[in-house]
Amino acid sequence: MIVAVTAQEGRIDSPIDERFGRAPFFMIANSDTMEVYAFDNSEGVNAGNGAGTGAAQLMAEQKVEVLYTGKVGPKASEALDKAGIKVVEGISGTVEEVLSAALQNVVMERAAASQQELEIPPSKPVSDGAIRVAIPSDSEDGMASTRSGHFGKCNYYTLVDIAGSEVVGVQSMKNGGHSVGGCDVPVRLLKGWDVNKVVVAGIGGRPLAGFLREGIQVYSGLGDTVNETVSAYTQGQLGPIRQDQVCGGGA
């Protein structure tokens, strides 16, 4: 989804501009790529008349689907309506605040729309006093399984319940598939299996944000097998993934 916000400056931390046609900038965001860019509206600011309808045409050219602004005049409103662009008026704050809420709504709506396509099989309950660590795996061989380098496209997740430094439960769960629902699928799968932490070889920014939003900690892993990874974890050799370890891909 393409979202536009009227802004006083061409920065993500810019205050909202309540005008539509004569806003100095439009901050435009793509919810699929999370790309945000500034569009200079100097032409609209300096227009003698027709700034609103001109800005509406610009929104259509940029394929904007939802516009956030302070107020839209009647002619511009009509043009936006004809272009199929939804308008949300009366906003305030910063561009970052508005985009954060808007893109979060997009994620939640897509998750709800695809929920029926994803069936999460039940897992065994978490052992008493334990936390559940999920490790992407190539097979259903439990602790002996080879650790997968792809958390979203792995064949299985090995769920390991750890109390203190002791392993008190192990089970293998088949991955439901990365294609349906995209990067949200692993997040929902592991959340549904009561996972507290996931150990990955690499991860993209979008799924990392999804895990953190659900309260699931993401660790950078070591070891060729699940057993080696768990051993490294219980010995305190693993830590939360750093921002410089985040890759460009989704999984």
Approximate helicity band: 25-40%
Number of helices, where a helix is a run of at least 4 consecutive DSSP H or I residues: 7
CATH class of the largest domain: Alpha Beta
Major sheet characteristics: 5 strands, mixed
Q: Rough shape?
A: elongated
Give the percentage of residues in beta strands: 15-25%
DSSP E strands, number: 12
Number of domains: 2
* Rg over C-alpha atoms, rounded to the nearest angstrom: 23 Å
Order of helices and strands: EEEHHEHEHEEEHEEHEHE
In the CATH classification, which architecture of the largest domain applies?
Answer: 2-Layer Sandwich
Structural class: alpha/beta
Q: What value does the average pLDDT take?
A: 87
Quick recap:
This protein has 251 residues and is of the alpha/beta class. The protein contains seven helices and twelve strands. Strand 4, helix 3 and strand 5 form a beta-alpha-beta unit.
